[in-house]
Amino acid sequence: MDRADRPFVRSRRLGAIAFVIVGIFTVLSVRLWDLQVVNGARYRALAEQNRVLRVPVPPERGSIVDRNGLPLAQNQPGFAVSVIPFDLPRAREDEVASRLAVYLERDAAKVKAAIVTQRGTNPYEPVKLNDRPLPRDTALLLVERADLYPGVRVSSDAVRTYTSGPLYSPILGYVGPINDEELEARRDLGYYLQDTVGKTGIEWQYEQYLRGTYGWREVERDASLRELRTLALIPPKPGNEVVLTIDDRLQKLLNEELERGVIEDRFTQAVGIAMDPQTGQILAMVSIPAYDNNAFIGGVSTDQMRSWNADDRRPLVNKAIGDIYPPGSTFKLVTGLSALATGAATRSTVVNVTSNVLRVDGWPFFDWRVHGRLDFVNGFAHSSDIYFYTLGGGNPATGQRGAGPDALAKYGRMLGFGEPTGIDLPGEAGGIMPDPLWKLTRFNEPWTLGNTYHASIGQGFVAVTPLQLLNAYASVANGGTVYEPRLLKEVRAPDGTVVHTQEPVVARKLDVAPEHLRLIREAARRVVTIRHAYMPNAKLPIAGKTGTAEFGLSKGVDAAGKQKLGFHNWFVSFVPKEDNADPTAEMAMVIFTFDSSRSVCNTCYNPAVALTQKVLERYYFDDAQQASAP
Amino acid sequence: MSVRPIAIAQAGSPLTDRPTARRLLELDWFLLLATVLLIAYGVVMGYSITVEDRTFTGDIGQQVLRSILYAVIGLSVMAIVAFVDHSWLGTFAPLFFLGTLALLAIVLVIGTSTLGATRWVTIAGFKFQPSEFAKVFMVIVLAKWFADRDVRSPFALLGALAILAAPVALVFKQPDLGTSLVFLGMFFGMAFVAGARLWHLATIVAVGIAASPILWTMLKDYQRARLTIFMDPYSDPQGAGWNIIQSLIAVGSGQMTGKGLTAGTQSPLGYLPIAESDFVFSGLAEDLGFVGALILFALYIVLLLSALRIAHRSRDAFGTYLAGGVAAMLIFQIVVNVGMAISLMPVTGIPLPFISQGGSSLISICFALGALQAISMRREVGPSTQT
Which of A6, A17, A122 lies nearest to residue B308, judging by beta carbons? Predict the structure, then answer.
């Protein structure tokens, strides 16, 4: 070997590396000597202490109450059965699973699968095996024969209970076992595989307040892994109480009246929402038919889920916010306000309705009767379609100018149509506020005067959620403020202190003159006083607007076997304090009835009007007296 | 004018240097013995830790068969590579470079994620970890680069860093901080062996330290916590420090002779995360004690010093740098993995050569050791040593 031929070999550097290698292993060995020989006994003792098991203790979920503290969702005590796979010998898995399955009223294979899955993920973490809480005697039985059930733990367990099932399910939603996606997204927030999480509704929206914080229990175990004693307990912090703006009494009244309408076959589906127009607080929100959210606790059955999903009345959807419908004549608010704001109309704009059909380019546009001469207030009060065709699109024959489709869209959007109101609930629809650009983009067709006419009376492309409609009228009733509706009133800690108060959230101010809003309020009151919306012996100065929309099928039957009519009614209202149309209303309400009966007559019978009167009067008079005299 | 005669051996083609049978005599037997014993040690530890692991739901026999299969594949790969003249590796260095980039890019595209990192690719039912092969391939690439240039020029050094940049970035993206650092360890080791000026290397280190605040911001929170917690694991005993404390308990409780194979308790109690790879040394030290760890160290020292001897005797610069690079790669991995288990180093999950379970690590190391044997067999045996 001739080193001179190979100048690339740098012996001193290779030697240095050899020296470093020996040095490194010397350091590692010295450190190991210190750990294993000098301090070995101490670490051996610590390893023994490691037989201490840390078990997470779930917090109790916060309850949900109405504005007066009445519980709507709370936790019912019971017992839970779980298994720590680590403590259950694999050989006894089958036997224990099948024996447990009998008490749990579950399939033995499913119980075993749960244990096996948990063994694969984290065998030291208990896996909960029961769907529903166990009664006390079953729990006792399992505890007494612990030798038969290695690794099985019985603990107290609270189960979510919803006070009135379908009455509140559209608002509250439900909780359920966390799924993989949710767990992945929330792992940093301290969620566990066996956790429960809000799936929809308020339970989803305010999960952060309701959830609480996990505690820990440290358990000492002997060599055979039996628990000897609890060494330490860091108690869990219960979740906060969520106080809703809902008034349970109004919610029940509204629900009772709407339910009765369904039972008496006056309509098949219904929505009712009540709001404080001065703050945007929702006082009641009913969607019929709804579902029993108690069925979701511990896992809903596939059959039940299939039947709900197959139901064409869509019971799982909160129709107050989740479905969109043509608003019909209630939309004349938008047409009227647009015409006033753009100067296309004033209080004294007169249209002489001499025929119940307006012909433009040979196309007929109908009114529901021959009204004669109408000014703004009477046009609105009598809900003349031709009056509002003219205000919206003008009349080529007389040369009268209308607000035009872009103004309709501008003021419609200002009032909140075409986008979600921003209520604190998931699943809100945005609705459609069409304009020429929208139609061009969507259908690649130009806008026509007929489109303007249809939009002017809330037909055609226009589609709204009941909440949007209510919110728009509420903004007129309060003198021009559009609020984001809220269901949250405040959040209280378990000791009762208020940790968060929901202030009203202003979405925008209406950019219209106050006298125009006053004119609308006056016209809305006139709707009732001229008995267009018939309220016999009215005790309240209710103002409002009726609406009728025809859409959907008018043949066949729905899932409940009721005739489909394709004929639906609205009444959206507010209650001024005095009969002077001041912007002081503290109550606004919308009622929407789906597939309304036409048995009486097409136009005079709007079930939503009578329902509104009845609910409001009962709320303000009859039941209020009962409530104040316990 | 005098012309220096060219030595025939230097001018010979890689295909026609010397007959195979004579080459066999030049095998590095110390290296081979250390390799075989370390592989066997790894199979035994794999068995012990699998038996201890109560979360393991598969068939233990099958698991052992699989690690034996990896050992057989590894030894076969080593034999095949040993018989090929290592010059070919240098010739194909550009291909190895492209192959590395392709493998690492594939991981990011179709890789499987575990615990938030995308490191594995599944092909025909076998999970494999391309970054393990990438390390060996990049040793080849860097050795070729240094062999063809004067390393005392700063451009050769900076060029090598530029070559490393893409693989390091791809591995960092997975994210696999540990393997990215191994690449840098390799670079410094090889540049040192290749004769880079010390002040050049020192400048690179200084620039790295100056830039570290920027790199720090590129790390994820958990990576930062892992990098700093080893200095005082008891500052967060229930959080970031938990793993390290439990690893120390495992190692310490092994005492002088260990608790015996399959008798460890730390790993079954779930206190050693990724007990079969990242924290495998803790399990070994718990089961076999100080004695078991020293035997492992002795085998490593034999292996590493053999590699340096091969570097010293290589007939060409490429062989020297390749052998030096393999030694640097292995020592870096050993120090980081063992250092992590005994809280001398930050937590960065990289496998312990031979002992961590996993075919990719073992087979890629066998590939590298095969190349070392190839260099050994083709070394210059001068007349004086042939007697």
Answer: A17
- A36 contacts B254? CB cut-off 8 A: yes
pLDDT category of residue B7 using cuts at 50, 70 and 90:
very low
Contacts (Cβ under 8 Å, ≥6 apart) of A140: none
CB A470 within 8 A of CB A273: yes
Q: H or E segment at A359?
A: strand A357-360
Give the residue on B whose Cα is nearest the Cα of A15: B308
Q: Nearest-CA distance from B55 to chain A in Å?
A: 6
- Cβ neighbours of A23 in B, within 8 Å: none
Give the Cα separation of A269 and A612 in Å (integer): 16
Q: What is the pLDDT of residues B68-120, one digit of tens each?
A: 999 999 999 999 999 899 999 999 999 999 999 999 998 888 877 766 677 77
Domain ranges, ordered by start, for chain B: 27-378
Q: Evaluate whether A288 touches A262 at the Cβ level (below 8 Å).
A: yes
Q: Tell me whether B335 touches chain A (CB under 8 Å).
A: yes
Instruction: Give the domains, in start order, of chain A with CATH numbers.
Output: 60-244 (3.90.1310.10), 248-291+316-321+467-488+501-630 (3.40.710.10), 322-419+431-464 (3.40.710.10)
Contact check, Cβ <8 Å, A123/B270: yes
| Torsion of the alpha carbons at A355, A358, A364 and A365, rounded to the nearest 10 | -100
By C-alpha distance, the chain A residue nearest B286 is A36
**Each residue's pLDDT tens digit, A577-596:** 876 667 888 899 999 998 87
Contact criterion met (CB below 8 Å) for A274 and A283: yes
Residues in A closer than 8 angstroms to B271, CB to CB, are 50
Whole-model pTM: value is: 0.60
Q: What letter does residue A237 receive in the DSSP assignment?
A: B
